[in-house]
Structures are given as structure tokens and as C-alpha cells.
Amino acid sequence: MAHLGTLHLYTKKLPAFEHIPSNSPSRPQNTLLWIGGLSDGLLTVKYPTSISQALPKDWSLAEVLLSSAYDGWGTGSLARDAEEVGKCVAYFKSLRPSGKVVLMGHSTGCQDVMEYLVGAGNEERERIDGAVLQAGLSDREGWEAIVADDPALKESLEETIDLATKWVEAGDGDAILPKKGNKVLEMFESPCTAYRAYSLLVKGGDDDYFSTDLEDETLEGTFGKIPSRTKVMFLWGSKDPYIPEAVDQESTLKRWAKIVKGGGGSVDEVNGGVIKGATHNLNDDPEDVVQELVGRVVRFVGGL
Questions:
Q1: What gap in Å lies between CA 127 and CA 276, rounded to an integer?
Q2: pTM above threshold 0.85
Q3: Which domains can be identified in the chain, with CATH numbers?
Q4: Taking a C-beta distance cutoff of 8 angstroms, is the pair 43, 49 a contact?
Q5: FRET label pair with 241: which of 92, 119, 121, 284, CA 20 to 30 Å apart?
Q6: In sequence order, which residues have a C-beta less than 8 Å from that of residue 151 and are 6 or more positions away?
Q7: Are strands 5-11 and 14-19 parallel, antiparallel or unpaired?
Q8: Across 4-116, where does the E strand assignment appear?
Q9: pLDDT score of 20
Q10: What residue range is the signal peptide (predicted)?
Q11: Spatial separation of the C-alpha atoms in residues 234 and 209, rounded to whole Å
Q12: What are the distances in angstroms from CA 115 to CA 48, 121, 169, 221, 273?
């Protein structure tokens, strides 16, 4: 399928694809930058195209390609992602100096957005006007759920965590973990460093922003530090298979929103929330479910 748009080279080797609706009458002034999850790349998730067609005429959506896209996630880090996202934000701000910029993360793209907002060096990054966190989930809790009923997989996960921890503590975090004989690492598909495995699978790892078992004090140091100038919206799907079944989705999102607001931040709780019938990336969801997501995002940016 062909997609009408512009490919921007926002830094030396990395592009962003800006969708241009066929009925767009003028050049947009505001930009929604979409960041995918682990193994995603340009156009691998379908709903950004639908959002691009429904945005107000003064907005456009661009999908950001990072070094961690496709199979690159296993040798990357949130810190590198945030640095590249910063370059993309700066690029579009230079194109549209008076316009607004919103970051929208999908899955691990949400961790990237959080890292951009509150991670080390955030004070030096370009300001953004809004952040949409769609399917921001815990990889750690997801893998715990995957292996729960399979003793062999559970053992492989424990071995992976033990080995990754040992290598990181020994200063070998950049080394690639051996896959042979480890069912979990074989399921990763991408080569994975000890650091990234540790970051994803250990409580308190750099990727551990969205685990539901994190204490309020920990969340106050992340969600509670989101700048007041950046309005946030949380979105989950009621049928997302990566959310543990025991988790009360509505209560969890309300808890996160309360912590953001307690730190002086702003949350769109009218348009945010749980989308009934939505799965993780909505690729095979009914059109009415996709349009529910689209409508929420359009209303969010329209209200900034």
C-alpha cells in the first residue's frame, strides 16, 4: 500500500515519515511525532495513518525512526532513544517555530517519551506541548506473565536475569547475551545486550516506568516529575494481552494521573482512559475501536 507523505532526514542517518492527507489544503503548523515500540518501524503499526487523516488541518503526524527500530532495540537504550527523539523535535521546531509539538508513544515508545520528559538531561531538551502514552506497559510484568505457566520458560527467564545482572555488574553490559539453549532469549529474536535485558526485565531497570507494582514514592520520581507545561494522556486497551489480568486498568490509570497531578502536572482524563475492545497496537481491531482511539487523540491535540 502506498502512503502519501514526506520523508524528512532529521539527523544524519535517521528519517521521520510525515503523513500528508490527500485533502490537506495547507502546510501544517503543529506536529504529532509518533514513536513505536520494540521491533516497530515505519508503517508497521496501522493506526497512525488513521490519526493523520483525522487531525485538524493545522496538524500533521510524523512517524519517527530511531536506531532502536526493527531489530535494533536489543542493543539500544532509552537514553539513546531520548537523544534521537530530541533531535527530531528540534528539527520540526526549526521547520515550524511557532507550532506545537506532541510526542505519542506506543508500547516501549511510551518509555521513550517518559525518558525524554524526566530522564537524565531532560532539562536541556526542547519543550513539548503534550504527550500521549498509548499501551505504556511493563516488559518485566509481561514476561513474568508469559512464563508463569511454563516451568522451562520460567527457568530460562531467571537464567537470563541472573546472567544479565552478572555481566552488568562486571562492567560488560554492552556484551551480547548468548541465545543458544535459552528459550527466552531465542524468543527475543533480536540480539540483546546484557544491559538491555537487565533494563527490561529487572525491577528498577531503566525501562521500568510502567510496572503496576511500583511504589508511589518511585512513581513520584517519574510521573510526578512530568513538567506542568506538557499535558499528558494515558491510553490502554481493554483487550491488551500484555496487561496482567489481575490489574484493574481504570484504577491504575487513575493512580498514575493522580501522581502526575500531585507533582503539578496536567492530565487529560476526559479523553484518556481504557478503550473498550482495543488490543495492544490495534492492527487487527474493528474499525470502530480504531476510530475511538483516533477520536481521543484528535480531541487531545485540539484542546492544547
A1: 32
A2: yes
A3: 5-137+212-302 (3.40.50.1820), 142-201 (no CATH)
A4: yes
A5: 119
A6: none
A7: antiparallel
A8: 5-11, 14-19, 30-35, 59-64, 101-106
A9: 87
A10: none
A11: 13
A12: 22, 9, 23, 12, 22
